[in-house]
């Protein structure tokens, strides 16, 4: 028990001979093979804020941490290929090149549960710890030969545990100068091992829980003295799970409020079970509904925990493995934070349906920004607010969403990171530092945890430095509609309005219309009489004569207008009869927006955005030189643009070039219009900066 065992790979065992010469030849070849290295480099002419394919073949489970590290301007992460090879990859954010080292080849089966944890040691070397999915008793581990260099690793070593093992969660505690790895071991209960030399060797530490259930834990550490955990009672297939929180520190285990539960076990037995700790989510252990499952936990700047988890609203009968079609189609994401001595927990979004039958509780997953408790990412195959299915070519697709809120008391707002995808996007991981936020996810086919073909994508979001400033004493009202062809404006605009208020101090109001398009209503539109700016992102609607007059009055008074994408056919109703008392307004496009809408034509590809004025100045303030990409297709307007308009941006797509952003005057009203506004544009810093500049310009803010 607790012995350290160095053992050779399967390939090495097969090749052993009595020849010393051949023996040493094989050793060298084996070392080179097990450190097989692949590299992918890209050209300089890329848009660094678009989703980027990092690795062609990779996957991960979510009960291992850390699976990814942000070290200066490099992302290092672990993976398991479709063939079961454990890998470590590096993504360089300076030039977007990537490289991968293969750590295992043939010694573990294809199974994403085998993915390793990563830890940056105090000496700069990287430690990875991994295990098979309950196939043997060995916890494997390796370290890099050189600091910050994933190309060369020590030989694989193994710690023999007290039963079949799975999962690895590795943390260094500075005050004790000890490294811990929490894993699932004997009885499917959580155990831990300890290292005094940063993971070069290990001893058995003890058992965290001892009870009949198979609990699922997520961990987070302050790096100093404390390791937090959240846990279920068991697997959601077998248990009506609650969610609990606790932490370990200086050899003891505690509830959330600091109440001592008892000394941490240092043997193969434990007096603890999950229910000894603080219940955060009450799923009602006796009732088969509202079944919780842990997703992610982080610590805020004060060391206080916040975490997310999923809840299955329609579980099947406990233990059922065959009649799985009866449930698993309604999952929700929940968020919990510790504040003022208590847990505050809420449902925040629809998560959608199960990833596949038999694992009815598997969702696309939700992950937290480790530097900001008001930011998170998740995957779902439904609209996060309404629960409506996300369909692409008639099939449900999982997309990645970014969630953010104004503050801890405010509702969450969401915007798509991926949209209208041909493949599923699942299992985001979030990294952050003071300058940027990085989200990575898996794209492709996921049939089971043993059968998948996935690529690793990543996206970088620049962190906005929020400077405390006075309210700008300006009111902005957004008029939007929801329909399948309005580019998710019901998500993106509330999200952008929240960020605008958070980062720029404006008073924002979003009015989401309702009813049939030919008899549309904008609730509370009468409040625009004191608004300073009207923003339009609605499509082919007719309003009551009274409501349309309110909009016309705003323009007649010389107040400014900002149009986004479908604003160039906002009131252009094409089909059906408009009932008495309602009216459309086709002249809004040529007279106010300043061009004719000529549809899409053949331009159905992504758009290259070209600056037509000096980058970094005026309406392009904060926007660098060079082309950038919008995933949306190009709107056509021929030569119809007002000759007095001042062109800001053009777009190229499918051999065509069109204006895509400009300013003009309509009477005394200042007008800005852009045909950008595809859902994923709202996480591109150039687009959001353009909108902020345009708002300042319309409102005469210097």
Automatic annotation (TrEMBL):
Domain ThuA-like: 499-698
Recorded superkingdom: Bacteria
Pfam families associated with the record: BNR_4 (PF15892), ThuA (PF06283)
Gene3D superfamilies named in the record: 3.40.50.880
InterPro entries, per database record: Class_I_gatase-like, ThuA-like
Record's protein name: ThuA-like domain-containing protein
Species assigned in the record: Cyclobacterium amurskyense
């Amino acid at each position: 028990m607790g012995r350290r065992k160095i053992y050779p790979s399967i390939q090495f065992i097969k090749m052993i001979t009595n020849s010393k010469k051949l023996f040493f030849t094989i050793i060298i070849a084996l070392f080179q093979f097990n450190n097989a290295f692949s590299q992918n480099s890209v050209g300089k002419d890329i848009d660094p804020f678009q989703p980027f394919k990092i690795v062609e073949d990779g996957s991960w489970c979510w009960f291992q941490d850390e699976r990814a590290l942000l070290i200066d301007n490099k992302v290092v992460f672990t993976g398991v290929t479709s063939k079961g090879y454990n890998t470590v990859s590096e993504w360089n954010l300076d030039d977007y090149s990537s490289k991968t080292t293969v750590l295992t080849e043939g010694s573990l089966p294809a199974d994403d549960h085998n993915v390793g944890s990563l830890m940056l040691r105090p000496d700069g070397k990287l430690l990875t710890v991994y295990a098979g999915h309950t196939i043997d008793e060995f916890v494997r581990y390796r370290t890099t030969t050189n600091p910050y260099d994933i190309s060369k690793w020590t030989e694989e070593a193994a710690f023999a545990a007290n039963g079949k093992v799975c999962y690895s969660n590795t943390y260094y505690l500075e005050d004790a100068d000890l490294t811990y790895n929490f894993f699932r071991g004997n009885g499917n209960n959580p155990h831990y091992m300890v290292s005094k030399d940063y993971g070069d060797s290990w001893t058995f530490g003890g058992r965290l829980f001892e009870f009949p259930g198979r609990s699922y834990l997520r961990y987070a550490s302050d790096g100093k003295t404390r390791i937090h955990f959240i846990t279920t009672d068991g697997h959601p297939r077998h248990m009506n799970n609650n969610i609990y929180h606790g932490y370990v520190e200086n050899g003891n285990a505690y509830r959330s409020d600091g109440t001592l539960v008892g000394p941490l076990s240092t043997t193969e037995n434990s007096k603890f079970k999950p229910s000894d700790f603080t219940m955060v989510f009450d799923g009602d252990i006796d009732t088969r509904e509202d079944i919780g499952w842990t997703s992610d936990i982080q610590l805020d700047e004060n060391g206080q925990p916040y975490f997310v988890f999923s809840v299955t609203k329609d579980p099947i009968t406990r233990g059922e493995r065959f009649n799985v079609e009866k449930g698993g189609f309604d999952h929700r994401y929940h968020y919990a934070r510790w504040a003022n001595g208590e847990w505050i927990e809420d449902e925040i979004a629809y998560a959608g349906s199960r990833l596949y039958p038999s694992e009815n509780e598997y969702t696309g997953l939700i992950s937290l920004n480790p530097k900001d408790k008001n930011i998170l990412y998740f995957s779902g195959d439904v609209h996060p607010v309404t629960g409506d299915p996300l369909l692409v070519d008639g099939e449900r697709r999982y997309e990645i969403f970014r969630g953010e809120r104004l503050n801890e008391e405010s509702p969450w707002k969401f915007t798509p990171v991926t949209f209208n995808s041909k493949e599923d996007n699942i299992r985001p991981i979030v990294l952050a530092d003071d300058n940027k936020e990085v989200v990575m996810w898996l794209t492709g086919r996921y049939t089971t945890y043993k059968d998948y073909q996935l690529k690793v994508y990543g996206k970088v979001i620049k962190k906005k430095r929020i400077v405390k400033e006075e309210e700008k004493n300006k009111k902005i009202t957004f008029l939007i509609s929801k329909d399948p062809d309005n580019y998710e404006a019901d998500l993106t605009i509330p999200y952008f309005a929240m960020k605008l208020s958070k980062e720029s101090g404006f008073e924002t109001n979003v009015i989401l219309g309702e009813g049939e398009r030919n008899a549309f209503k904008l609730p509370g539109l009468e409040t625009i009489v004191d608004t300073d700016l009207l923003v339009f992102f609605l499509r082919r609607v007719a309003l009551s004569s009274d409501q349309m007059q309110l909009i016309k009055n705003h323009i007649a008074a010389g107040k400014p207008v900002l149009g986004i994408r479908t604003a160039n056919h906002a009131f252009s109703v094409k089909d059906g009869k408009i009932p008495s008392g309602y009216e459309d307004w086709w002249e809004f496009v040529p007279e106010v927006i300043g061009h004719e809408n000529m549809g899409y034509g053949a331009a159905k590809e992504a758009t290259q955005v070209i600056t037509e004025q000096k980058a970094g100045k005026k309406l392009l303030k904060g926007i660098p030189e060079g082309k950038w990409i919008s995933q949306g297709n190009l709107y056509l307007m021929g030569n119809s643009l007002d000759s007095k308009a001042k062109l800001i941006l053009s777009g190229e797509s499918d051999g065509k070039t069109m204006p895509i952003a400009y300013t003009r005057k309509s009477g005394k009203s200042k007008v800005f219009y852009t045909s950008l506004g595809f859902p994923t544009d709202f996480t591109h810093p150039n687009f959001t900066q353009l909108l902020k500049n345009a708002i300042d310009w319309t409102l005469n803010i210097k």
